[in-house]
């Protein structure tokens, strides 16, 4: 019945990246006639380069440059032929040298992304399963999409959560053949390592477990012959592991390398590994540069280079330890991450550092959660000790400035990253504002509430009293909600901001598509609370419309908004919420930029529908005002059936009717997985029956022995708004009597009869509501999550 508009993940990413581009921190262009690795020129200013992934600086080595130049002179700019047929003359020497580095069969690929696309669909067979670390590189996750058509079982675990990994191994071990766990050796944002020893222990415990490790960020700066972080820990590659390294990044050339100790699997991948078979091979210049780099890796010189880098990494760590800079992960890798929390703070901080002459990378969504924005710093051999010290001094000076200018503090950064705070929290108090946070509408003046937030929907004073009484002291935890009412006044007791807030248990897939929800609901048959989380929300699951009042003309409105953000963060912590949802905003809402800067990303919700009725409206005049096409639908689908139906408006229901209408509502809820919510308690429908503010429009059909075949649950907001909040339908009679359309018509007819001014028709089914004259408005929510795990898991499930 209801068509849900699901958020397009690409649209969300596009908004975030566009915002960062406008802030001047990404999509930049290096300038000048040459590069040296140590400095980089951007926007006319030369800066010390702390953003490279060429950690050993080999991309500027004269030997690699000379080899590449000579190769172009001798062999041309490319060898345009698939490597399956014939390789150019430099390939064999390179393969021999890379084999010496690992002492296992290897395959060289154009790059790691194409390598994963070649290897994963070949290595993982029908009847296998794959478990992804949710922070494994995008190129690995993307390559697994091919497996879905083969019926391969896919799972995802929270980052490096070995308990969760073992749980899924146990679940799958009697159902599949091999179980592949895919992870990074060194993670590219925070610089942390895969828990390799734990993985080895799990491999011994569960022989089905196979490991697929992308170690491109661990390459060259660690390990024998620069074979990478994974080899530095394991020393010998186990038979149950496939390892990816790189010939670019720290290696200084181009391409990637698969190390495959299983010779039979190595042959299969080589013979038919998708991009290996059909894509162009590496250019002669790249292969020649890689040969020159391999010679360095096979010589004692590689250990001198590693030691030089290690000294600089240690020095940077020593300097950071003397500061209060929020280093997110203490490690020995060349990758460091300084948290800023809010994107707007990250933009400010990066721009400040660039003006000081330091180029660093911004870490932002989707690589990290939006509120985990920060500065990604990489240390390379190009960096000199004095430059490293100067960078730390610049960060120590500018981070407090960036925090202050963006109305936040270090404590909020620590809270966003779940770090132990080193400072006393600042509450962003403003001497000219008075803050009230109440947990019951009974503590709020009725007139003040109704004139600010109670004009529409069920969220007037009486409606909130009803919801507080209903979603309290229930048996199931999903039926118990907490409410807060935030009111911010100025010194003259004028209301600057008001907000309705709630906390309740949500299904993580509430706004996911029906495919994902169907898969998850199967799991919930045995685990009812699988993939559910506490959510702190503007409004609640029962209300729709305006949940935030803000005096746009008040000079302290920004300070009031900052207090709202601080309140949300405290309540998020107190309620252990995994997500904050600011709901029901229009596409061009004035607060769009503010919310994005505060670490929220926007998702599209189902459209909202409403009708504004003219004074002294009659149902006849209303129908006459519809388009000719809509009038035809009205005559065919509504008027033709109305005389044969028993239509009633009931102010209360008996026990048997309550049971009937709840069953009808549950049928709609279960049929509409596109907006997947928990059921409501029977207490809700009982309280509706007892309340003078609720009434029920019911439809009975002559041959329907079960009685009611359709019901609309309608709330009468005393500010002259009629609110059909829920609908229940018997689908066996839906097409025969066009029950849903009849209910919509009867709702409009009833609102006109009661002389209401507005009808809030709510979300979903916009096509049907538009036919009967409703105005349709796109609605958006601003979301902030504790991590990206749920979002990425939804993406994995939705694409099945």
UniProtKB/TrEMBL annotation:
This protein's record includes keyword Transferase: yes
Superkingdom of origin organism: Bacteria
InterPro entries named in the record: Acyl_CoA_acyltransferase, Aminotransferase_I/II_large, AON_synthase_class-II, PyrdxlP-dep_Trfase, PyrdxlP-dep_Trfase_major, PyrdxlP-dep_Trfase_small
Spans traversing the lipid bilayer: none
Pfam family, one: Aminotran_1_2
Entry keywords, A to Z: Aminotransferase, Transferase
Names of the cofactor(s): pyridoxal 5'-phosphate
Residue ranges annotated for the Aminotransferase class I/classII large domain, each copy included: 55-393
Cross-referenced Gene3D superfamilies: Aspartate Aminotransferase, domain 1 (3.90.1150.10), Type I PLP-dependent aspartate aminotransferase-like (Major domain) (3.40.640.10)
A molecular function GO annotation: transaminase activity
Name of the protein in question: Aminotransferase class I/II-fold pyridoxal phosphate-dependent enzyme
């Amino acid at each position: 019945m209801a068509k849900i508009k699901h958020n397009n993940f690409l649209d969300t990413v596009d908004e975030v990246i566009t915002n960062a581009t406008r802030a001047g921190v990404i999509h930049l262009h290096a300038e000048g006639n040459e590069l040296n690795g140590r400095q980089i020129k951007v926007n006319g200013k030369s800066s010390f380069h702390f953003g490279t992934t060429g950690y050993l600086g080999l991309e500027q080595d004269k030997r690699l440059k000379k080899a590449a130049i000579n190769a172009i002179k001798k062999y041309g700019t490319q060898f345009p032929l698939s490597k399956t047929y014939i390789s150019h003359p430099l390939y064999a020497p390179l393969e021999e040298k890379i084999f010496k580095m690992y002492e296992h069969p290897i395959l060289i690929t154009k790059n790691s992304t194409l390598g994963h696309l070649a290897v994963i669909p070949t290595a993982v067979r029908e009847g296998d399963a794959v478990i992804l670390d949710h922070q494994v590189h995008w190129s690995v996750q993307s390559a697994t999409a091919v497996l879905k058509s083969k019926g391969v079982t896919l799972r995802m675990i929270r980052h490096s959560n070995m308990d969760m990994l073992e749980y899924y191994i146990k679940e799958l071990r009697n159902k599949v053949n091999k179980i592949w766990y895919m992870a990074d050796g060194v993670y590219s944002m925070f610089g942390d390592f895969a828990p390799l020893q734990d993985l080895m222990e799990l491999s011994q415990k569960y022989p089905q477990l196979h490991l697929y490790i992308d170690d491109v960020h661990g390459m060259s700066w660690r390990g024998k012959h620069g074979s990478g972080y994974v080899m530095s820990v394991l020393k010998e590659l186990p038979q149950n592991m496939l390892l990816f390294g790189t010939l670019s990044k720290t290696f200084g050339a181009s391409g990637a390398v698969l190390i495959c100790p299983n010779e039979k699997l190595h042959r299969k991948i080589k013979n038919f590994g998708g991009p290996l078979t059909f894509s162009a091979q590496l250019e002669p210049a790249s292969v020649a540069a890689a040969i020159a780099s391999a010679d360095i890796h096979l010589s004692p010189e590689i250990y001198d280079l590693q030691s030089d880098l290690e000294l600089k990494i240690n020095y940077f760590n020593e300097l950071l330890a003397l500061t209060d800079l929020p280093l997110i992960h203490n490690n020995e890798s060349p990758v460091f991450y300084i948290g800023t929390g809010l994107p707007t703070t990250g933009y400010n901080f990066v721009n400040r550092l660039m003006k000081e002459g330091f180029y660093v990378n911004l870490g932002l969504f989707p690589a990290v959660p939006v509120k985990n924005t920060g500065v990604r710093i990489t240390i390379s051999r190009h960096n000199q000790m004095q430059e490293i010290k100067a960078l730390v001094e610049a960060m120590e000076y500018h981070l407090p400035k960036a925090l202050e200018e963006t109305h936040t503090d270090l404590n909020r950064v620590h809270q966003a990253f779940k770090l132990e705070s080193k400072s006393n929290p600042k509450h962003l108090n403003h001497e000219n504002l008075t803050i009230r946070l109440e947990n019951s509408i009974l503590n709020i003046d009725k007139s003040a509430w109704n004139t600010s937030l109670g004009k529409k929907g069920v969220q007037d004073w009486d409606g909130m009293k009803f919801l507080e009484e209903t979603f309290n002291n229930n048996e199931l935890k999903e039926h118990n909600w907490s409410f807060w009412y935030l009111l911010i006044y100025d010194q003259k007791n004028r209301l600057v901001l008001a907000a309705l807030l709630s906390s309740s248990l949500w299904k993580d897939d509430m706004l996911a598509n029906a495919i994902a929800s169907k898969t998850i609901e199967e799991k919930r048959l045995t685990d009812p609370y699988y993939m559910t989380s506490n959510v702190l929300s503007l409004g609640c699951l029962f209300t729709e419309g305006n949940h935030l009042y803000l005096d746009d003309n008040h000079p302290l409105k920004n300070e009031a908004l900052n207090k709202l953000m601080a309140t949300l963060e405290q309540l998020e912590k107190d309620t252990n919420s995994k997500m904050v949802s600011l709901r029901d905003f229009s596409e061009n809402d004035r607060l769009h930029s503010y919310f994005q800067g505060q670490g929220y990303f926007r998702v599209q919700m189902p459209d909202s529908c409403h009708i504004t009725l003219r004074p002294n409206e009659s149902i006849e005049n209303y129908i006459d005002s519809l388009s000719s096409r809509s009038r035809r639908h009205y005559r065919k689908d509504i008027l033709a059936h109305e005389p044969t139906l028993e239509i009633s408006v009931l102010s209360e229901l008996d026990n048997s009717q309550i049971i009937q209408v709840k069953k009808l509502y549950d049928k709609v809820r279960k049929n509409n997985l596109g907006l997947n919510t928990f059921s409501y308690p029977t207490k809700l429908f009982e309280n509706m029956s007892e309340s003078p503010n609720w009434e029920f429009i019911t439809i009975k059909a002559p041959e329907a022995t079960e009685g009611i075949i359709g019901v609309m649950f309608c709330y009468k907001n005393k500010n002259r708004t009629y609110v059909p909040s829920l609908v229940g339908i018997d689908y066996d009679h839906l097409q025969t009597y066009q029950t849903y359309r009849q209910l919509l018509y009867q709702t409009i007819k009833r609102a006109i009869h009661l002389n209401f001014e507005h009808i809030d028709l709510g979300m979903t089914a916009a096509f049907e509501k538009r036919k009967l004259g409703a105005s349709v408005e796109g609605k958006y929510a601003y979301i902030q999550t504790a991590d990206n795990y749920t979002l990425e898991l939804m993406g994995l499930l939705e694409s099945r």
